[in-house]
Structure formats: structure tokens, C-alpha cells
Design brief:
The protein has 16 helices and 14 strands. The structure holds 3-methyl-2-oxobutanoic acid (KIV) and zinc ion.
Length: 498
Amino acid sequence: MDNRIIIFDTTLRDGEQVPGCQLNTIEKIEVARQLEKLGVDVIEAGFPVSSPGDFKSVAEVSKAVEKPVICALTRAVKKDIEVAADALRHAVRKRIHTGIGTSDYHIRHKLGSNPEDVLKRAVEAVKYARKFVEDVEFYAEDAGRSDNEYLARVIEAVIAAGATTVNIPDTTGYCLPSEYGEKIAYLVNNVPNIDKAIISTHCHNDLGMATANTLSGVVNGARQVEVTINGIGERAGNTALEEVVMAIKSHHSLDYSHNIDTRQIIRTSKLVSTLMRMPVQPNKAIVGRNAFAHSSGIHQDGVLKHRQNYEIIDPADVGIKESAITLTARSGRAALKHRLQLLGYELESNQLNEVYERFLELADSKKDITEEDLRILVGTEQKKGKKAIELVSLQVISGKTTIPTATVQVSFNGDIFTETASGNGPIDASFTAVKNLVKRRVRLEEFLIQAITRGSDDIGKVHVQVEHKGNIYYGFSAHTDIVTASVESFLDAIGKIY
Ligand code: KIV
Ligand code: ZN
């Protein structure tokens, strides 16, 4: 059996289903181009029938990248397949990913159907998709909890109908690695025409076993893995691309090849995290801030004596490298441009000027400008546009023996309003002042402050979620002053209500 693993990235489809992580078309193109540089074989770009925005994104990604196959998701429904084929029409290489639930839960309680009818619909969907494209992938949703015998019958029938890849999703993240591996082995041994298709894994991380299940699937015969950057995805997420690839690289017993340029991993991870406003947990394997940080004296001493004493991966292999040029308040535009180019940003000269102005402001208040700081500067610049509500000024009084009080001045479609309020801390006081100003019933659902590095002069990133009339709105801002970042992110979310 060929040992090459096809890397199927679904960051832009399954990853993007995370509430609050939606990307616009320009951002999707940026991620798709980076995925192409990373070397993924397939990009699942969206679910075109689900919304005009998704349709447009699949169509634009199809034009923007050349090497990877562009894949579009559908249900086993004719209309979905027609719309997907239309969205893919500019793709150099295209794939339709169609499917239906095969577990008892899905057959009876989701589809209100029976096994024979589902099998028929699966076959019809694959045959219909083959009328539009040659590359058709079939997914058996909730395969993780499907009866193996029935699953094997469905897989045999869809391969006979023309499916070239068969996806075996553990949709609910339920399987143990041994069980998932056995399921793949069962299909290898019991589907007579299995050699006519590639078996694909698609694992969710509800029990923290997505990567283990994926590798178990590969060891038992799967040759495509469906993964996302940073493991993002609904609920506990999908299998993380970086974990699978680096496990393969680190273990000689996993003798598989793939096309990924691992030195692009950190860059891709940061791009996805920044654009999706989805912070990476500090202890996340491979891409977390602490993944290569050795804090204890014994570990530091050990790593200095010999890196492999405590490191199984060379940080350079995933693209962690310090640039020789340190940016300070005295750096010129050329140095900034050079560092941005190293990060993959090519800015027009007017954009560069704007970023440079903001860079100088930041460099005045912060001594080390990190790559993450630069990403935020560029990201904020690219996202700039006229906002309905903007913070004009903020004055806060707080301390151990004072009642925290904030005076907030905002511009609301050009008119300026001011409000003062007190609270149990400077952020609470500022948020109360904002709430009094906007006169809408908004409830803060989530509030997250994250420092990027660890210095007291660091930039704080703030993510908020607010609820208004049953809908959730997301806000984000970054600033060296965390109260300012908090108020800006609160206003960013509230502005979306209008
Ligand atoms: O988890 C799942 O079953 C899926 C399918 C739609 C492929 O994402
Ligand atoms: Zn999924």
C-alpha cells in the first residue's frame, strides 16, 4: 500500500463553523493561500448552499489557489450538489464532498428514515455528483457510532457508484483509538472494492482523542486525514493538522510521507488564530505559546546542555525563528517592511505608512515589538473601516482606596456622547458607562484578556461576546492599555448590533 498521506484541510469549512470565527471572503483567500504554501493537498473551502457568503468564498478561493484540490461540502441533496458544482467552476482541480448519516441515531432520529433508503440516497448523491466532477468524496456522517456491517455495505455501494474517497467521520468524537482503528481495518478487510477508493479519517476531539484516532486510522489503512489548523472546529474541535504531521515527523515507526512544509506551521497557526480571533491555548501541542518554553531551571539547564534532553521537536522545524533584525522605535520603514515580508505581508506603500505610524506609537510604549504585535498591527489596519460607534476618549480613576470611576466618550455616527459611571473595577466602571450610553439591553456573555508575550508593557488582546435580544455579537481589540482594549472590544461588539 502506498504510504503517502493526503492532507485534507477543513479549517475553512468545519473549522469555520465555530460561532464567532467566521471569516469574510478576503480573509478566506488569505488563509487558503497560506494553506497552499503549507502544502495541503485538499482545501475544503465551504458549504456553498448554506449561504451566499459561503458560495462566494468557495468561488473566490477556487480562483485564488492553483495547486490544492478545492472541495465543497454538500448534503445528499441534488440542489446542494448543483450549487457546489457551480461554486467550484473556476477551480483548477475540484472535488464534491457529499454524504449522509449512517448511524442509527442519524438514520432514525435525524433523517426519519431507514437503512435501505439511506443507502439509496447515498448512491444517488454520489452518482449525481459524478455528473459534475470526477473527484467525489462520500462521507458517512456519524460513522464512529455506525454499525460496521451496514457501514461496509454503504461504502461498497458508494464506491461502485463512483466515489473516489470515502470519509469515515467520528462526528461526535466518541471513538477510542483502538475502536476507530478497528473500524478502518474492518472496512479494509470487508469492502470488496475498497482498493478503488482512498479511505479518509475525520475525527472530532470531544474526548481529546482526535489525533490519536486519526493516527490509528492511518496505521490501519486510511490514506487521507481531515484536519484543521490549531484543531479548531465545532465543540472541542477537529484533529489538528500540526499534531498529525509532527507526530509522523517525530516517530520513525510512522513511516508515511506527505507534502507539508512543516516550517510554515507556526505562520499558518498565527494567521488562522488572528483572523478567526480564536486564541490558541498556551499549552496547545506544537503551536501553543508554551510548547517550546522551558521555565524550570532544571529544564533550561538540560536544554542548554543538549536540546534533545527535553525537546522532541526542533522549534525551527515548525518555523520558530527569531529574526536577526530587532524592531525598536528607531527602526525605519525599510526595517519594518523587511520584517513584514518575512511574515508574508506585502503592503501597498500607503498601507505601510499607516502601519508604520501605528508601529511607532506602539514602539514608544513597548520595548520589544514581537511578530505577534506586527500581525495585530497589520490585521487592525486591514480590518479598518468606518464603524458606527468609536471610542474617542477614556479616563479612568482606580486604586485600592478609590471607587473605580470611568468617563467614556464615544462617537456615534459622528455625534459625540459622554458618560461617567462607577463599578467594582476600572473595566466594570467603563462597561457600565458604555451601557448607559448606548441605552440598549446588552449582556456581557464572555470576556477574555490575553497578553501576547509576558512583559508588563505587552499588548493585551481582548475578546468579548455580548448578547442582545437572543443574538450573540463578538468584539475584539488589542492595545497596550487593557482597559482601552476592553472598552474598544465591547464597542466593537455593540457596533455590530446596529
Ligand atoms: O463531522 C462530520 O461528520 C462532518 C461531515 C459533514 C464530513 O464534518
Ligand atoms: Zn466534522
